Q: What sequence folds into this?
C-alpha cells in the first residue's frame, strides 16, 4: 500500500511535466511554441484564429450598445468556430471593461480545447478614448501641429498604461495615412500632409505604446493603419476610389508605414478602399510585394470592417462572399474583421477542403497570429488586473494631454487682439462649440461618433467655462443666437466655430466652406464693431477666407481633446504662448486644393500655408551656414542656424527645415520637410539649431518600385527666412 502510494505520488508529480505541451511553457522560444501549437490545431481551430468578431455579436442586445457578454452566444462562437479575437466597444468604466474581458477570456479558455487566449482590439486613437475616466489626448492632426515627437511618445505610453490592464492588448492606432485631402472625413485622424511628420510621430507613438515597461507583465500591440493609399479618394468621400501613381505612393504613403515597421509595429490594418482600380484587400502587389517583400513586415495584417463582404457589395470584384474570401486570403490578409458573422469560417474551410487555398497559406497566417499572442504574453497573463485603476486619468497623464493640447493650438492671424487684455470685463462666447464638449473632441471620443453631451467628463470645461476660469473677474457668457445689442455690450467676442463630431462615411461633405449659418453669425459679430476672435474647432479646414479679414484674430484649435478648452483659454489669455504650426495647407477656396509639396507647375491655393503659426514673441533666424557646399552621396553635411527670441515673452518654436531638389527626372515637389525640432527660448535668448543632412535619407526620392534615386545637382535648404544652396556630386 505504502509503495503504491509512493508510486502514485511520483506519477502525479511527473504528470504535469509530461502532459504540459511545449507551447504552454513560457520558457520555450516563441517560434518553437508557435510550431508546437500549430501542429496540434485542427483546420477549424486555425480558421477561428483568423476570425475577429465585433462585441455586438456576443453581447446581450446584439446591438452596439452594451459592453457585456451573453454567455450562450459566446460559447457558441467559441465552441463551433473557435473565434480567436474580438473588438470594439465604447466608453464604459474600467471595472466594467475588466469584468467583461475576464468573462470573455474565462469562457474562451473553458471552451477552447487548446486554451488559446483571445486578443481584444480597440480604437484608442487619441488616448484611452473608450474608457470612462481615461485620458483623452488631442486628435492626431493636433498632435502633428505640436511638431513635438515627445508628446506623441507620451500619448503612446499613457494609452498603454491606462488600457493594458483591462485586456485592451491590441490598439488600432496610429493612423498613418498621409493627410493630403482636406475633404476626407478622416483628415483629423492623420498626422497631416507631410510624410516625415507621420513617420516620426507614428514611430514615437508605436515605440512608447508597445514597449512601455510599466505595464509588465502585459504588453500592447499597435496597428499601422490603413495600409495603404486610403487618404486621397478622388471624390473626397470616405472609402471611394483613389488613383495614386506608384512613385507618388512610394514617396508619400510608404514612409510612415516603413517607419512604423522599423519601430516594430506588430500589426497592420488594411485600407478599405481601392487604389488604381484594385481594392487593397485583393491586391497581392500591395499586401505581399510592397508590405511583406519591400517593407519586410512580418506581423499580422487584419482586414478593416467587413471588408471581405465589401468586395462583393461595395467594390463588386467578387460574385459572392466565398469568392471574396478566396481573393482576400490569397492577397495576404491574416485575420478577417468580419465583424458580425462567422460566414468567413465556413467559406474559408470549404476553400481549403476543395484545394482553392492551401493549408500552408493558412498556417502562414495562423503562425503570425499565434506569434502575436505569445509576444503579448497572453498565454501567461490572459486575465485583466484590477489593482491599477487609479492610474487611469491620473493627474500627470492629464497634464501630458494638456501640454499636447497647448502646443497644438495654432494662432493663424492676430491683429493685436491676442492675448486678450486682462482688463476685459465682458466676454461673449458664441458659436456651436461654445458650450459643446462634443465639438471639441470630434469622432472616436467615448463612442464612434462621439456621445451625448452629458456623458463627457464633468472635469472637462466647455470653452465658455474654461474662459471663465482664465478670466475669473470678467463676465463670461455664451449665447447661441446673440442679438446685436448683446454683441455690442461685450468687450470681446470669442466665436467658437467649426464642425460637429463625425467619423468615416457620415463625415462626408461636398463643400469645404464653413457652414453658411456660421458665416452669417461671424458677419453679424464683426458688424457689432467689437473685436471677434475666431476659434476653429474642426477636423479639417473649413474655408473662412470670406470672413477672416474682419476677425481680430483667427485660431485653429482643431480637435484638441478633453484638455482642449483649457488650452485654448490659456492661449487666449496669454498664460500660454502659442507654438502650434499647421501640419497641412489651409485652402483659401474650395476650388483649388493642393498640398504644400505640390509640383512646380502648380501653385499653392493656401490661405494659411503648411507651417503657419504665430507666437506672442518674435523669433529671428540668422547665420544659416553649411559645413560644406558640395558633397558626395556617401558624405553628409551639417546645416546650422541661429534662432533668437527677440521678443519680450518666453516661447517655443518649431524649427522647420525645408529642402528643394532643384532638378529631378521625376518632377520634384516645390519643397518637402527635411527635418523639424522644437525648442524653447527665454526672451533675449538664442541658440544654434542643426540639421544633419544625410543624402540617402534627405536628398533621395523613391522610384515607382521604391528604389532610392539620388540625383546629382543643386538643392536649396530653407529655414525661417534663411536659405542656402548646396550641390550633390556623383560618386
Ligand atoms: C475603421 C478603422 C477601425 C475599425 C474598428 C473601421 O471602420 O476604418 O479605423 O479601427 O473600424 O473600429
A:
Amino acid at each position: 500500500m505504502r509503495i503504491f502510494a509512493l508510486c502514485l505520488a511520483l506519477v502525479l508529480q511527473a504528470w504535469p511535466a509530461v502532459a504540459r505541451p511545449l507551447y504552454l511553457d513560457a520558457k520555450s522560444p516563441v517560434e518553437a511554441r508557435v510550431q508546437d501549437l500549430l501542429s496540434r490545431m485542427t483546420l477549424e481551430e486555425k480558421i477561428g484564429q483568423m476570425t475577429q468578431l465585433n462585441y455586438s455579436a456576443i453581447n446581450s442586445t446584439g446591438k452596439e450598445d452594451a459592453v457585456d457578454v451573453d454567455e450562450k452566444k459566446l460559447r457558441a462562437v467559441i465552441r463551433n468556430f473557435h473565434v480567436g479575437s474580438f473588438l470594439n466597444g465604447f466608453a464604459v468604466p474600467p471595472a466594467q471593461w475588466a469584468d467583461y474581458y475576464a468573462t470573455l477570456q474565462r469562457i474562451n479558455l473553458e471552451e477552447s480545447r487548446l486554451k488559446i487566449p483571445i486578443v481584444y482590439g480597440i480604437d484608442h486613437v487619441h488616448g484611452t478614448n473608450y474608457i470612462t475616466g481615461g485620458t483623452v489626448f488631442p486628435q492626431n492632426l493636433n498632435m502633428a501641429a505640436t511638431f513635438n515627437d515627445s508628446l506623441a511618445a507620451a500619448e503612446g505610453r499613457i494609452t498603454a498604461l491606462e488600457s493594458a490592464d483591462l485586456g485592451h492588448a491590441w490598439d488600432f492606432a496610429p493612423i498613418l495615412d498621409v493627410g493630403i485631402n482636406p475633404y476626407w472625413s478622416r483628415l483629423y485622424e492623420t498626422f497631416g500632409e507631410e510624410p516625415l511628420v507621420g513617420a516620426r510621430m507614428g514611430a514615437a507613438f508605436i515605440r512608447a505604446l508597445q514597449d512601455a515597461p510599466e505595464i509588465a507583465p502585459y504588453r500592447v500591440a499597435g496597428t499601422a493603419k490603413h495600409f495603404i493609399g486610403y487618404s486621397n479618394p478622388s471624390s473626397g468621400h470616405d472609402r471611394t476610389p483613389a488613383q495614386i501613381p506608384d512613385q507618388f505612393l512610394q514617396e508619400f504613403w510608404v514612409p510612415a508605414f516603413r517607419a512604423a515597421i522599423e519601430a516594430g509595429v506588430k500589426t497592420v490594418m488594411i485600407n478599405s478602399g481601392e487604389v488604381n482600380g484594385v481594392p487593397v484587400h485583393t491586391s497581392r502587389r500591395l499586401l505581399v510585394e510592397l508590405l511583406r517583400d519591400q517593407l519586410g513586415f512580418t506581423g499580422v495584417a487584419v482586414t478593416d470592417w467587413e471588408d471581405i463582404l465589401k468586395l462583393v457589395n461595395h467594390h463588386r470584384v467578387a460574385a459572392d462572399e466565398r469568392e471574396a474570401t478566396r481573393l482576400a486570403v490569397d492577397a495576404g490578409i491574416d485575420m478577417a474583421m468580419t465583424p458580425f458573422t462567422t460566414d468567413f469560417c465556413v467559406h474559408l474551410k470549404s476553400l481549403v477542403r476543395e484545394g482553392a487555398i492551401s493549408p500552408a497559406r493558412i498556417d502562414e497566417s495562423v503562425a503570425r497570429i499565434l506569434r502575436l499572442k505569445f509576444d503579448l504574453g497572453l498565454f501567461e497573463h490572459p486575465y485583466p488586473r484590477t489593482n491599477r485603476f487609479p492610474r487611469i486619468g491620473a493627474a500627470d497623464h492629464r497634464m501630458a494631454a494638456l501640454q499636447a493640447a497647448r502646443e497644438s493650438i495654432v494662432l493663424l492671424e492676430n491683429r493685436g487682439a491676442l492675448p486678450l487684455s486682462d482688463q476685459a470685463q465682458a466676454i461673449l462666447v458664441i458659436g456651436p462649440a461654445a458650450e459643446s464638449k462634443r465639438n471639441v473632441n470630434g469622432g472616436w471620443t467615448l463612442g464612434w461618433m462621439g456621445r451625448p453631451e452629458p456623458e463627457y467628463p464633468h472635469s472637462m470645461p466647455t470653452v465658455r467655462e474654461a474662459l471663465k476660469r482664465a478670466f475669473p473677474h470678467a463676465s463670461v457668457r455664451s449665447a447661441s443666437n446673440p442679438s446685436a445689442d448683446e454683441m455690442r455690450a461685450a468687450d470681446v467676442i470669442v466665436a467658437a466655430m467649426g464642425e460637429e463630431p463625425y467619423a468615416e462615411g457620415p463625415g462626408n461633405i461636398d463643400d469645404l466652406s464653413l457652414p453658411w449659418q456660421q458665416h452669417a453669425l461671424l458677419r453679424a459679430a464683426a458688424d457689432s464693431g467689437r473685436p471677434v476672435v475666431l476659434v476653429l474647432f474642426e477636423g479639417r479646414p473649413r474655408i473662412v477666407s470670406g470672413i477672416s479679414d474682419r476677425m481680430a484674430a483667427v485660431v485653429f484649435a482643431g480637435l484638441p481633446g478633453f484638455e482642449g478648452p483649457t488650452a485654448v483659454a490659456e492661449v487666449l489669455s496669454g498664460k500660454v504662448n502659442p507654438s502650434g504650426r499647421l501640419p497641412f495647407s489651409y485652402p483659401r477656396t474650395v476650388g483649388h486644393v493642393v498640398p504644400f509639396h505640390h509640383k512646380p507647375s502648380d501653385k499653392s491655393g493656401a490661405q494659411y500655408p503648411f507651417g503657419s503659426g504665430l507666437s506672442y514673441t518674435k523669433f529671428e533666424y540668422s547665420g544659416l551656414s553649411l559645413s560644406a557646399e558640395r558633397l558626395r552621396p556617401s558624405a553628409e553635411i551639417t546645416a546650422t542656424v541661429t534662432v533668437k527670441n527677440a521678443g519680450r515673452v518666453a516661447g517655443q518654436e518649431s524649427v522647420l527645415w525645408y529642402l528643394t531638389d532643384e532638378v529631378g527626372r521625376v518632377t520634384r515637389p516645390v519643397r518637402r520637410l527635411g527635418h523639424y525640432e522644437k525648442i524653447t527660448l527665454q526672451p533675449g535668448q538664442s541658440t544654434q539649431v542643426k540639421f544633419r543632412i544625410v543624402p540617402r535619407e534627405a536628398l533621395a526620392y523613391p522610384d515607382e518600385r521604391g528604389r532610392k534615386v539620388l540625383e546629382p545637382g543643386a538643392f536649396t535648404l530653407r529655414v525661417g527666412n534663411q536659405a542656402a544652396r548646396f550641390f550633390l556630386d556623383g560618386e
Q: What stands out?
A: The longest helix spans residues 2-19.
